[in-house]
Amino acid sequence: MRYKNYTWPHNPRTYEISYRRGMAVHKVPLGRYYMREMGMEHRVLRGEGEFAGPGAYEEFKKLASVFYEGTPGVLVHPVWQSSVAFFVGLSLTMEPSADYVAYSFEFWERCPGYDGEIKAVNDFGSPQTDGGSGGAQGERRTCIVGKGDTMWSIAARNGISLSRLIALNPQIANPNIIYVGDTVYLS
Q1: How many Å apart are CA 97 and CA 79, to the nearest integer?
Q2: Most Cβ neighbours (<10 Å): which of 35, 94, 148, 171?
Q3: Which CATH class is domain 127-185?
């Protein structure tokens, strides 16, 4: 196993890869609910290992120095496809000695397309004008619903109260159910 410039002398003893799918549950009238798939969440690689023999504690310190860097790097594991990940957890699981160290670790896969900086994006879900005529009412701002959007998230992202957003959009019969590609009016 390798992360950034650190290569394990031998692969960790155990590991677990977990995948999660985000789900949102919206209550609707008469005790019913609506579930919405919010997309794949980050993958997590957890495991345990040990360094044994002369220099075991020194080897653990090398691994810890990679953890302290705090930036993402390429993780290569025999079972997990190579990907960019954050090293988010490193723990001693017992009292270390000079010739034996037991530890646990955790990596989170970085979202593809995200480089660690917040940037303005012109994509579904971003405020944009509808190219109106600029008449007496001025331009009307709109938002195109993207994957995972809810009326609440659109309102919060654009600094509008949920009740105001619902009032601006009488064409949406049930505010609990909107679809990717729908147009939502922001003003």
Answers
A1: 30
A2: 148
A3: alpha beta
Convert the pLDDT of each residue in 2-20 to its tens digit.
Answer: 999 999 998 898 989 888 8
Please tell me the pTM assigned to this model. 0.56
167-173 contact pairs (CB < 8 A, 24+)? none
52: Cα within 13 Å, side-chain hemisphere: 6
pLDDT of 113: 53
How many residues are present in the chain?
187
Q: Which fold has domain 2-109?
A: Elongation Factor Tu (Ef-tu); domain 3 (2.40.30)
CA dist 177 and 138 (Å) reads 29
Taking only the tens place, the pLDDT of each residue in 63-118 is: 999 999 988 999 998 777 788 899 999 999 999 899 999 999 999 988 665 555 54
The CA distances from residue 51 to 8, 11, 108, in Å, are 9, 10, 23
Q: Where in the chain is the domain with CATH 2.40.30.200?
A: 2-109
